[in-house]
Write a structure and sequence with these properties.
The protein is of the alpha+beta class and about 150 residues long. Helices cover about 20% and strands about 40% of the residues.
Length: about 150
Amino acid sequence: MATKKDLEKFEKFAISQTAILIRDDKCLILKAASREKNMWVLPGGRLDKGELGEAAFARELKEEINFDNVKVLGVAAYDIWYHDIPHLGVKNWPICAIANLIEDTGQEVKISDEHTEVVWASEDDIENYQFIWPKAHQIIKKGFEYYRLLNK
């Protein structure tokens, strides 16, 4: 049986869920307002303490793009990476990020003040954007692959 000391050996990390929404063969990306200039994100965010995954994801999409009743089609990809937050003096904060492909229900995207711009980017155009998430380009491409598989 594991002891408390055993548990201290394990990495503790934040869990973040993002949405890959594809409409007309383009993926929704958002320009982050509070980050370095020209940094882009997928809609979503972290779980709050005590929050369950599905409820957190629904809350984040409501807050960030004003979507209700989101249906997750499946996990397109995931990644674990380390993020610096200079204004908080945090280095190498571990994040487990999960990218969910969501169903397009045609809802209008209305961004919160966390973002300044909405772009619908094609799979080829994704490379022209700099993302906070280091492997975002590969993750979004996996989302497009998954989307094509589901829509054969």
